[in-house]
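User: I'm preparing a small set of examples for a lab meeting where we compare how different chains pack in three dimensions. I only have the primary sequence for this one, and I'd like the structure in token form so I can line it up with the others. Please keep the answer compact; I'll paste it straight into my notes.
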Amino acid sequence: MVRVSIVGLGAMGATYASLLSRAPGVEVGVIASGERAERLKRDGVVVNGCHFDFSVIDPGQAGEPADLVVVGVKYHGLAEALDLMGSQIGENTTVISLLNGLTSEDEIAARYPQANVLYGITFGVDATRFGSQVKYASPGRIAFGLANNEPPYTPAIQGLAALFDQCGITYEIPADMIQRMWWKFMVNTGVNQVTAILRAPYAIVQQPDSPARELMIAAQREVIAVGQAQGINLTEEDLDRWLAILDGLGAGQYTSMAQDTLANRATETDIFGGAMRRMGAELGIPVPVNTVLHQLLKAGEIAADSPWQPAT
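Assistant: Understood. Below is the structure token output for the 312-residue chain.
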């Protein structure tokens, strides 16, 4: 029996929980407490029309550590997730983070140095969640591993690859995982922020030569410039590879950040535009597009929390 514990059952977490649970010999549980735990016990989650009642793991109750912990929260939920997942971490536990941004793996490893923490990214996933309903047209794929990967892989990498093979999850183990993480950072910094501001699905950036697509690409080219200044091998070819993937995503699906703005939730713009502004300032590289995107999204969060009243 392979025990998998997931913290964060949003659109992405629920998608991969459903895929992992369909393999024989895999037991999937969700780490949750309080009202979230009660809701999961009562309602479960529905993924592409199929109902799942995952076991709910009480973070305050000691038990056998998991073989695999999947961290699928938004970045602003990472600190809470680190507190919740402690009982599931042992010396043989593999942890994979599916968070956006560039820093979550280091934060997890600092908190749980006994675990086998792997870098991880997802791409091509177009899952959306409304209430207890999750839908996706494409489950995408996962890239994972250590910073540098050459066969023979570590036992943790081999074990995760075998599990994904068993569950039918498409994956890759890049030789240069840091470059691949920067590629995902480039993707998200453009598409997530632009679609969030416009509160629009992928269709808005799939139209050739549209203003939204041009804005997305401009933000992503700033990431290429900042990455190259730090020795990251990002090029226009990486941008072209993203555009080829983008055009195959469900036109009516929404990025996670667009879902956040539609629901008037806080966004992850601080780890995209905010991070770009910090790195740009440190390197002396102008990032005007990301500066404006970050400012607009932060202003939008303030406006969403303000009970504006019409003039009388």
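A couple of notes for your slides: The chain has a mean pLDDT of 94. The CA atoms of residues 220 and 239 lie 8 Å apart.

User: Perfect, thanks.
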